[in-house]
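2024-03-11 09:14:02 INFO receiving multi-entity request
2024-03-11 09:14:02 INFO entity count = two
2024-03-11 09:14:03 INFO echoing inputs for audit
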Amino acid sequence: MSVVAFDGTTTRLPEPSSQLSRLARRYGWTAGVAVLLAVLLGWRISQLPDFGDFEIRTITAGTMSLAFLAMAQAVIVISGGIDLSVGSMMVLANCLSAMWMEDQDLAACLALAVLVLVVTTALSTVTGVIITASGVPDIIVTLAASFILAGLALFAIGGPGGGTSPDFQEILAGGLSNYWPSILWMVGAIVLVWIPLRRSRLGLAIYALGSNRKSAFLSGVRIARTRVLAYSIGGLFAGFAGLVVTASTGGGEPRATIGTNATLNSVAAVVLGGVALTGGVGGLVGPVLAALCLTLIPAIMLGLGWDPSNAETARGVIIILVVLVAGLLQSRKRPV
Amino acid sequence: MTESLLHTSAVAKTFGTVVALRAVDLDVRPGEVHALLGANGAGKSTLVKILTGVLRPDAGLVAIHGEPAHFRRPSDALARGLAPVYQDPAMAPDLTVAENLRLTNADRDAVRAQLAAMDLDGLDFGEYVRDVPLPFLRMLDLARALAFDPQLLLLDEITAALPPDLSERVFEVMRQWKARNRSVLFISHRLAEVREHCDMCTVLRDGQNVASFVPGEGGEAQIVASMLGEAATKVRDEARVRSATAAAVGERPMLQAEHLGAGRQLHDVSLSVHPGEVLGLVALEGQGQDTLFDILAGDRKAERGRILIDNAPVKPRHPFDVIRRGVVFVPSDRLHALLPQRSVRENIAAPLFNRVTSWGPINGREERRRVREAVDRLSIDLRAASQVRRLSGGNQQKVTIARWLARGLRVMLLFDPTRGIDVGTKHQVYDLVRALADEGAAILMFTSELREVALVCDRAAVLHNGRIVAELPSDAGENALLSAAHGLAEVSAS
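2024-03-11 09:21:47 INFO inference complete, emitting structure
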């Protein structure tokens, strides 16, 4: 990083920063999380003597709902907001789909899945509209929304129940040892939804908004519309997370604590995945990798024979350590 | 009479109970460089925001080439040929330059061509905006505005952050625009620039336009007089500010720096400030003055050298370590020093709590008395007192100084205290600095306005490339200061 220096009276242009430092800035954190994931995966494999397709599928399918929830949260956090209702949205999508899909065939289930996604996207859009129109802070509106959505879920299904077509389960979560569907859905969401979005004007606007709302406005970004759209995208991903829950459990479960837990996990995955809570920084790949890490950690701890409560503690400690170390590395990179 | 390019009549805007604009009539003709002048809080920024679609006026008319224009957002103004360069950089820091340009639909090749015309074509568009130094960011903002080929270019304080050679390129752009029969609306606190480069000026005061004239004819006196209105009579002869310096300068230095150095900016700085004295520090942009002040204020550790306060060596680890000894810092970025959402009273009282309370609740009466004294002394405008961020820049600066007055001080470090402040408030700050020195405070003041050295200071130290290269009497003259600041007094280290 160069300093504006006077040479006589001529101000010279700064030296451009190196390609490497730019790559590090853009992909450094994601690469770090990938390394962490590789280490954890290696550890888990060493714990299980006959590690195979079944175990891979357990990890990928077990992570998928959190991964999609983390994507939902990431888009919103990048835009400079936060959504405490993603978990409840997932529960609602789970309950609605389980209720509607019971005893239906695959074609009907797929159609209903689309309908569920439309509903969650619409609800999340409404949340976004309320936030931008009212000026009430997003954290409050989405907290209130989380209660409403949890209530709606319980009201709709009444209690644990519902069902879905086994073919639908197969397609979304894969059979007992088939890990491909879960991996393809996650990769597909990133390649087919996120990357085109990231490159579009809307994607740029979302980043600009989170980076500095005022300069985004002065650059001609439609602030309110972009914020709402970020929530809409979040609603889409959260709805998909709910479908995944239906597919992997085969039923609907309206317990509110599932939603709150999932919301907190999504925030953890986003932070661990390198999305700055102040907005404007990060992507979706990091949070997905982080979600995989968060699923692996308790499994490894249990494999070590730890008490589940200690495993939770260890997960928290690891989050703090990773964020701390990454923060230190980044602050050292700051130009002198 | 030629048709005007931009015309506003009776434009008004209020924010809650605060009237920002009462009624502004403005006329900018084609081929004219038009200056918009006014003291802080006169309404310049509000008018610019209305003209560029950031704000909507409550009443009044904006017309372009005689046709009414209703801007709902910045892109509307752009579409009608009004391109602004705002006071604050309008680029998202976490995106690259290229991404920012794409966001505004600016043509990259056109921007590059404009940069090339300003001799800045080496700028890498893959760079993150966060990594581009501020002066070049301003030039980039300008190039982006020019790339839209606007009828009217609005430049809001663009030269404030620019070194002289880059400012000169901005003026060149203004001349070109004029030659093409297009117009520029130019806002600057630097009256010399206005006199030299503007064909016409409109002066705002209290949300109204009070005068329009050719700035080159009347001279600075007329400009200042119309900016200040009634208050103009109170602006004294500048030379008299310093004559008040009757108090003897103390024998022992109150603050000493010995061979201070840190990082790549600061190499070797030794200076001493005595009680009753104002030492001016003069430097061009980026010569290490920021680092020096951060170190003296206890915000950053010195890697080499030492600091003595009242002859006792101090190794500050935290600003509190020096504040405790009566050394206080007034940074140039006001909102950096203040609590923007809190009231004037709380802001002034914040550094006071260490003193007023022992353990236990805050002594409200004592707090109010000290705050009132400080407010009175600085004649702070309390109309928007409930939140400091709503005050004008000049009043905010007064609050940053007032909070230290209320607390009491022995050494004051002032970093460009009058940057972006109107002329009237500037004089109040000068008076205050002198008065503080006369009461026995030792003052170190960095200034980017050379004439302030003669106005306020007793001596001047010149910083170049992280070293003190000269110490001059305050009446050495601006030319001597300027050449020293360029490192011409001795062989340049670079």
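2024-03-11 09:21:48 INFO post-check: The two ends of chain A are 8 Å apart (CA to CA).
2024-03-11 09:21:48 INFO post-check: The first helix of chain A runs from residue 19 to 47.
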